[in-house]
Structure prediction request, 322 residues.
Amino acid sequence: MKKVILLGSSQSIQEYTTELTRFKGINVVGFMDPDDSNNKDLFEDFFAMMELIQKGDIFIVGKQVQQLDFEIIRQLIRFGKHVFIDGFREWSSAEVEEIEKLRIESRTVFQFGNTLQGLPIANAALQLINKPRFVKVEKHCSVPKRGKFDTWIFEHISEEFDLLQRIMKSPIRSISARPMFLFGEDPDLLNIHIEFHNDAICHISVGRAIEKNVHRIMVYQKENMLLIDLAENQLNESRLSLSTDQLSLEMEFYPGETLSSQNRTTTERHISPYNVRKIELQHFIENIDKQQTPNTSLTHLLEVADIVEVVCEKVKRRYQTL
Prediction:
């Protein structure tokens, strides 16, 4: 029987408790809220923290948890505990490399859940993607607060970076980034240009200059164009209507050009719904039992952290006030 301890508020971990009771050999022994001021001493006291760690075999961290000291994660892995974290955490590349090294030594499973990659729409889209040439990402969000630019980037586009890597399936060749100040002293738009070794290109535009409620990814390929509308949970595929237009496909689908409706057919692709939390927890338990690598692991977060650090370095080199 594997003992599970949940880290999060009583409300946020209720769904995890419900799903975990469905699995044989799993026993939820309790929960602890790191953000509760009454638990502050426990998490700051090394010996008290070690006593908590010894009580469980598996630790699950809810997305709402804000005060998650990196030392806690390090000790969990060091003492051979399996960890499931809801959403990516803003750790540096060095920190991710450190706990990945500990994870390999302890042969534990470290899995992230509740990211874009795990959504049904992302899973459906990835089945249709083959050798993309250009990817365009647009997302509306608030402007970054002064001195919080790194956190702002991670909070708003870290999961897009992860999904982009899965779409492109190629190492990054170069990254350029430039903020645009349209309405005042705060950056209203951040443009990121990424080139890959397979000659594919990605352009990301994020900020309040993007139309409200917009969150979409457009994937341009030789045969078609996919519109992944994350805000509306809608997946559309567009193809040229006539085979004689095949030679002009690249020109017609080139970003910035308009493909007239009479020359294309657009189909709304079916998205098979499923309980994301249930599936991810099921995979997590299977990964522990079979010693398998998770679909979203520390390796994926490391790739994201590397991109975030490069973007921040490029921007702050020129705009030091951010």
